[in-house]
Design brief:
Blueprint lengths: L2 E9 L3 H11 L5 E4 L10 H4 L3 E2 L9 H11 L2 H5 L10 E5 L2 H16 L6 E4 H7 L9 E5 L3 E2 L2 H14 L3 E3 L4 E7 L2 E7 L2 E10 L5 H6 L7 E13 L8 E4 L5 E4 L4 E5 L5 E2 L6 E2 L2 H14 L8 E12 L5 E5 L2 E8 L9 H12 L20 H9 L3
Parallel strand pairs: 1-2, 1-11, 2-8, 4-13, 11-20
Antiparallel strand pairs: 3-7, 4-6, 5-6, 9-10, 10-11, 12-15, 12-18, 14-15, 16-17, 19-20
């Protein structure tokens, strides 16, 4: 078989893999990206993502990444020389009872502790001014004005194109079959095109990362989830500007530039047994649509145009694993983003590139993979087999 050498091998060309490839390639290193399909195609998470660009509601361990990422998004279209459909329309989390409003007040204090100083509590009147037509039950909201939205597929492909302009090589339609190990070091991967020897491997293969990790004896505490999205037909533009969610609802609701409403919120479909596709759940489609119509009744004037799922890698504790793996030198993980990684991609790309170059990356301190060793084995096994 053919053998190729590169400085860094990245497995996975989703938004994380391509953001990392871009940041490493512009440092002048030889980068090879191996992708089983192509950047941002079905059923990958980077194709199916809701596209929220938010800080609000982040885990404390993600806060530094979120702050950096929001700053980068301001000029990312210029940097990548591409239209990302980025819009900074804010993020509005709503309360529909006095009890939920009390939860929101505490939530806003938590956002301030994370460094999101512009997040503020708004009353019913201001919430309805931000989004005319909200239902009469809304009593308060947490508003993060610097958050927004972008197109996940466009962003992923823009990172990939920029990486290639800086010299990165992409092997699309090429499966990575196994990692290559020599003693305590990962030295490359066996792929459908041959073996690749490299100074460093980044595993960023999303829902399919566990198979490759298992090839060198690493059991990842992740599971595959099929998360549903719904697109409506076009409503009048600017009906909705912020991204909407609510304390008591499983919902993410935004409006695209063309007027369509995009609905998410974690409603499940089912991955196929081979994890190469999915099946939709009619109950999830009905439930997701009804929830959006209840919160913002104007949505009910529209119709479902299409629905789909993306396959996500959900981690045991709900936050990603980013960094080196003890006992496996030369391997860095960037996976397990659990349905909320997209917005972090500019910061993750920069941090992983710095990490591989031997520079400090304090924004990753709370996301290091070594925390896996603290997870109870029986609970991890139950998590991996639990039905959505």
């Amino acid at each position: 078989m053919n053998e190729l050498h590169s400085d860094v091998l990245i497995i996975g060309a989703g938004v994380m893999g391509s953001a990392i490839a871009y940041h490493i390639a512009r440092q002048g290193q030889r980068v090879l990206v191996v992708e089983q399909a192509a950047p941002a195609v079905t059923p990958a998470a980077s194709w199916a993502s809701a596209g929220g660009v938010r800080r609000q509601g982040r885990h404390a361990a993600e806060a530094r990444l979120a702050i950096e990422a929001i700053e980068r998004w301001q000029t990312l279209e210029e940097e990548l020389e591409a239209d990302l459909q980025y819009r900074q329309g804010g993020n509005l989390l709503l309360a529909e009872s006095d009890e939920e409003a009390e939860q929101l007040a505490a939530f806003v204090e938590q956002q301030h502790e994370h460094g999101f100083s512009d997040v503020r509590l708004v009353d019913r009147q201001e919430a309805r001014a931000l989004v005319p037509g909200l239902n009469d039950r809304v009593v308060a909201g947490s508003y993060s004005p610097r958050d927004g939205q972008a197109d996940p597929a466009l962003t992923t492909r823009a990172f990939a194109a920029a990486a290639q302009r800086h010299g990165a090589v992409y092997w699309n339609e090429t499966r990575a079959l196994a990692l290559l190990r020599q003693g305590a070091r990962i030295v490359g991967a066996r792929t459908a095109r041959g073996e690749v020897r490299t100074g460093h491997v980044v595993l960023a293969a999303g829902a399919w990362s566990d198979e490759l990790a298992a090839s060198v004896g690493l059991r990842l505490p992740i599971r595959t989830r099929a998360l549903q999205m719904i697109l409506s037909d076009a409503a009048p533009p600017d009906t909705l500007r912020p991204v909407l969610s609510a304390v008591g609802r499983s919902l993410s609701l935004k409006q695209l530039a063309g007027g369509e409403f995009l609905l998410g919120g974690g409603w499940p479909g089912d991955p196929t047994p081979d994890r190469r596709s999915y099946t939709l759940r009619p109950d999830s489609i009905r439930g997701n649509w009804a929830t959006a119509c209840e919160l913002l009744p104007v949505v009910s004037r529209q119709h479902v145009a299409r629905s789909w799922c993306g396959l996500e890698a959900e981690s045991f504790d709900g936050i990603p694993f980013i960094g080196a793996v003890a006992g496996l030198d030369g391997l860095t993980l960037a996976l397990g983003f659990s349905g909320h990684g997209f917005a972090l991609s500019p910061a993750v790309g920069r941090c992983v590139a710095d990490l591989i170059a031997g520079r400090p990356a304090p924004g990753l301190d709370g996301l290091r993979p070594d925390r896996m060793t603290d997870f109870p084995h029986d609970q991890v096994e139950a998590f991996k087999t639990e039905q959505a």
